[in-house]
Amino acid sequence: MYFDTIIAGFGGQGVMLMGNLLAYAAMKAGRQVTYMPVYGVEMRGGTANCTVVISDKPVGSPIVQEPVSAVVLNNPSAEKFSPKVKKNGLLLVNSSLVDEKYVQARTKRILRIPSLELASEVGNPRLANMVMLGALVQVSGLVTVEQVVKCLPEALDPRYHKMIPVNSAALSRGAEFAKQS
Amino acid sequence: MAKRVLVKGNEAIAMGAIAAGCRFYFGYPITPQNDIPEYMSAHLPDAGGVFIQAESEIASINMLLGAAVTGARAMTSSSSPGISLKQEGISYLCGSEVPGVIVNMSRSGPGLGGIHPSQGDYFQSTRGGGHGDYRTLVLAPSTAQENYDLTMLAFDLADKYRNPVLILGDALLGNIKEPVELKPYRKTPPVKDWALTGTAGRPQRIVKSLFLADGELTVQNWKLFKKYQSMERDVRFENYLTDDAEMIVVAFGSVARILKTSVDKLRAKGRKIGLLRPITLFPFPKAAVLAAAQQCGHLMAVELNTGQMVEDVRLAADCQAKVDFYGRPPGSIPTPDELAHEVEKAWRQGGRK
């Protein structure tokens, strides 16, 4: 079993938390895992991304050139990472923000998720990242939404623990949307 | 089983240090190792220790000397240009035989260079780096777990040999997050009958690196030389699928973990390739490299630089094998496929006839 994903968006959209949570959940599920944040001269308002690799065997490279999957939350990320996803890979697009012209992929497995609208449904558009993660978890089948929810206390700073219920709701909403698509 | 946590490579180093009884940390910020002082500043005081952000790298290394000479376990960390600044202090630590742990989460050079992973500090780490005829033990982890485990070992080896131990990682190993099993530290640190703890009730002790009397320094240098030779007992390496290998790749640290995947890919194609991973860079696993050379007659060094460790591989192989080289200067990290391609290319050309 081998899976990798690049999660990309604006700094502040919560891509690092998404990667962390996925890595946590996979670790708790007994997998080998690496999480690698983008590394360079970053700045506020710029793009951010992280790579998560999940495997049955120890992970060699924590960085991937052509990912099995990608989750793109904004236009620059869609433009950069859509073409890199493997031919039969999985591409999750935040259709609330991403313009179709930036989605140029080799794979046909593309899931467009109106994450802002879905997050607003559960009460807070800022939870769009959790909606996207819920969808990724559902489509990839790597871990369950419940397993991710269980990791929220460890992955979130204690000051945000009161947000765990809405985060859980957003994860479930994303998973539900993916199941119906 | 010990607790398993998902932590950054840098944090794993700090956790290993505190677990091993490090109670003094001195440092000056530099990317990509700032998670180490960040973690130390948050957790060392709770462990009864002292965290000081010093005014410079030079101050940090001298504070390390000052703390360690009292017998305490102490550490400093930095990255390449900062480690260059510490060289004077490292030479003094070696000269006066004071233990200490120095972490180099290296970036790329020369000069201010960049912040990407590189193994360009191999020579500096294994050849001394400061003035004088000395060596430091050098440990090269390749996973976050090894960052934790080898940091504990570093403190033990430093005390055992009364010598500084360098941990050589890079930007990749500092920033990666991986599960780490927080194994408890079970050893009892040795009694230090040389430490400066106050002379009340005992004869005076002197710790120094200045030897001016006739012939004194000769004696001291031979003593140090014998000590560096004796470090061979603690040589460490990992052999991966080498038993039936027709060619053995030699690599350490971050590039070695990527190469493991390359070797797996080549094995799946039926190519008999193995990997020898030095874990101690000094002492270098000379006997293991010689055995590998004699076994298959074909070695290949792969490094994130333009060729440094390959010199040690060639010396150790003692002309018993063809030694190929693939180097990648800083800029991008090679993928398992790229490395597999380079390794296979060398393998096709064959080894020593």
Write down how many β-strands of chain A occur, each being a DSSP E stretch of 2 or more residues: 6
Structural class of chain A: alpha/beta
Q: What is the CA-based Rg of chain B, rounded?
A: 21 Å
State the order of secondary-structure elements of chain B, H for helix, E for strand.
EHEHEHEHHEHEHEHEHEEHEEHEHEH
Are there runs of chain B of 5+ residues with pLDDT below 50, and where? none
Report the structural category of chain B: alpha/beta
N-C termini distance of chain A: 25 Å
**What is the highest CATH level, the class of chain A?**
Alpha Beta
Structure characteristics:
heterodimer; A: 181 residues; alpha/beta; Pyruvate-ferredoxin Oxidoreductase, domain 3; 6-stranded mixed β-sheet; 6 strands; globular; B: 353 residues; Rossmann fold; 2 domains; 7-stranded mixed β-sheet; 5-stranded mixed β-sheet; 14 strands; 40% helix
Describe, in plain words, how this protein is organized in 3D:
The complex is a heterodimer of chains A (181) and B (353). Helix content of chain A is 38%, strand content 20%. Chain A is of the alpha/beta class. In chain A, strand 4 (69-72), helix 2 (75-81) and strand 5 (90-94) form a beta-alpha-beta unit. Chain A is globular, with a radius of gyration of 15 Å. The two termini of chain A are 25 Å apart. In chain B, the strands form three sheets. A seven-stranded mixed beta sheet of chain B has the order 3-2-4-5-7-6-12, sandwiched between helices. Chain B has a five-stranded mixed beta sheet with strand order 9-11-10-13-14, sandwiched between helices. In chain B, strands 1-8 form a two-stranded antiparallel sheet. Chain B starts with a strand and ends with a helix. Chain B is 40% helix and 20% strand. Chain B folds into two domains: 4-233, Rossmann fold, CATH 3.40.50; 238-349, 3-Layer(aba) Sandwich (Rossmann fold), CATH 3.40.50.920. In chain B, helix 10 packs across helix 13 (336-349). Classes of the chains: A alpha/beta (181), B alpha/beta (353). Chains A and B meet through helix 1 and strand 2 of A and helix 8, strand 8 and helix 10 of B.
